Amino acid sequence: MAASDDIARENPYLVTEDTIQEPPTTFFGKTKYLGPGFILSASIVGSGELIVTTTLGAEAGFVALWVILVSCLVKVTLQLEFGKHAINTGETTMAAFNQLPGPKWGKANWTIWAWLALMLVKFLQVGGIIGLVTLTVQVAFPDAFGGKVGNVCLTLFFAVLVALLIFRGRYKTLEKISIVLIGLFTLLTIVSLVMLQGTEYAIQAGDVVSGLKFTLPKAALLVAIGAFGITGVGGDEIMHYPYWLLEKGYAAKTGPRREGDPNWVRRAKGWISVMYLDALLAMAVYTVMTACFYMLGAAILSASVNAGGEVPDGIELVRALSTMYTETLGPWAGGVFLAGAFVVLFSTLFSALGAWTRAYADSFGQTGWIDFNNEKQRRKTIAVCAWVIPFLWSAAYFFMGKPKLMVVLGGVATSAMLLIVVLAAFHFRFRRLAAELRPGRFYDIAFWGSAIAIVLVGIYSLVTPFI
Fold first, then answer.
1. CA distance 36 to 355
2. At what angle do helices 221-230 and 65-74 cross, to 10 degrees?
3. Which residues of 140-176 are buried (b: 16+ CB within 10 A; e: fewer)?
4. Whole-Å CA distances, 23 to 30, 33, 88, 244
5. How far apart, in whole angstroms, are the C-alpha atoms of residue 64 and residue 217?
6. Are 245 and 87 in contact (CB under 8 A)?
7. Do 80 and 271 contact (CB within 8 A), yes or no?
8. What is the pLDDT of residue 431?
9. What are phi and psi of 112, to 5 degrees?
10. How far apart are CA 174 and CA 354, in angstroms?
């Protein structure tokens, strides 16, 4: 094994001359180093796709398909900017935030404190997800785990299980499990959408066209905002991306920043090229998945809403979602759906906890509570967070008990979080990026377009509760 791999395994956040490795130059060579984007996808293809996307489809029909597609496509340039900054500087997300303009309260920049405040709402979102994991098992095995006692015991069991998987989890474990989970559920969902065409719910060309006209019913605005924030790569996932890039070794292999050094510039451009491929392939996966979920919800669940019903919550939501599969594949598919729903929801818990533990440890380092660069302190903090956070998710679920609403509210908070992400991305692009790594005009046009769209939605999400 190469010396750089040994060092990265011990401390993936250490960037020295000893960690340098030349980047691959061929497509197939680059594919060997993919992975960070797919860990994000394991989180993305969960609450957003399974809950918010289908809910928006049910309430708005096909007319909001454009919201989903724009949500998936528009945010990737910000993800790329965060990724480039990590490779360019070797900084973690919170270390980079601590150098943003604006006041500091204590040792931490205001953006870190704002992130910590918004994360309080995000606990509702993932609390809703752990509740849905429990409800999925209860629907599958009502005799064994029915009732309130079964609900509480299962929720706590899954909190312990995800903590056990994460508290000592290394990057490679997270990557492999995430890819397997995504692959299984992606296959099932695409097959279901194809078979839908043989039923009374078959999607017509006119349905798809109506979803690309940039109109939206007023009644679906809140869900649409939540969907924009939570589908595709969200604000929190953009912030998580640098941790996975660093742990994969992109920055370490690039080596310490040496502006003007042609060898460093060549390596940086090479690893940024690998990162681009990683992010764009992951975007293709979650965009296809999101569109599939949306059309299933619009085709099947919207029928009951149009008949005067409402999209249910809690255990009835899980049962309603399972009809998307039983209606297209037959009664036998109900069990397959429940297994798939469990996989995709649990994968969200799994990848989210992995990212949250790192982000919280990083933020504690910036506030001065720990030394994040100290390997022992960092691992200890990550381990403690891995045990505390799932039980806080569980407490949020026990307190509120409405998973669908909890997930939507988390999506609105994510939309607001994107405002901080935009600010940081502009600072990285125009103030911190090495001159030799600056992108072309087409990229900057896409970057500005993304930023404007996100700012408008983020502002609307903040003022919606008051209008």
1. 11
2. 30
3. beeeebeeeebbeebbbebbeebbebbbebebeebbe
4. 8, 9, 14, 17
5. 8
6. yes
7. no
8. 93
9. -70, -45
10. 8
Global confidence as pTM: 0.87
Question: Tokens 């506030």 correspond to what residue?
Answer: 367
> 132 near 318, Cβ under 8 Å?
yes
Residue with tokens 């597609």: 69
Give residue for tokens 């994460």: 166
Instruction: Report the C-alpha gap between 58 and 77 in whole angstroms.
Output: 30
Cβ atoms of residues 412 and 229 within 8 Å: yes
Are the C-beta atoms of 220 and 410 separated by less than 8 Å? no
Q: What is the Cα–Cα distance from 347 to 459, expressed in whole angstroms? A: 30
State how far the Cα of 347 lies from the Cα of 327, in Å rounded to an integer.
25
- Tell me, letter by letter, the H, E, C secondary structure of the chain: CCHHHHHHHHCCCCCCHHHCCCCCCCHHHHHCCCCHHHHHHHHHCCHHHHHHHHHHHHHHHHHHHHHHHHHHHHCHHHHHHHHHHHHHHCCCHHHHHCCCCCCEECCEEHHHHHHHHHHHHHHHHHHHHHHHHHHHHHHHCHHHHCHHHHHHHHHHHHHHHHHHHHCCCCHHHHHHHHHHHHHHHHHHHHHHHHHHCCCCCCCCHHHHHHCCCCCCCHHHHHHHHHHHHHCCCCHHHHHHHHHHHHHHCHHHHHCCCCCCCHHHHHHHHHHHHHHHHHHHHHHHHHHHHHHHHHHHHHHHHHHHHHCCCCCCCHHHHHHHHHHHHHHHHCCCHHHHHHHHHHHHHHHHHHHHHHHHHHHHHHHHHHHCCCCCCCHHHHHHHHHHHHHHHHHHHHHHHHHHCCHHHHHHHHHHHHHHHHHHHHHHHHHHHHHHCCHHHCCCHHHHHHHHHHHHHHHHHHHHHHHHHHC
Mean pLDDT by 10 residues, the chain (467 residues): 47 88 94 90 69 75 84 87 95 96 94 94 92 89 85 95 87 82 77 78 87 77 68 82 95 90 95 96 86 81 65 68 70 74 83 94 95 91 96 96 84 81 94 91 90 76 57
Contact 45, 282 (CB under 8 A): no
For 76, the token pair is 């990737």
Q: Report residue 333 as tokens.
A: 């598919």
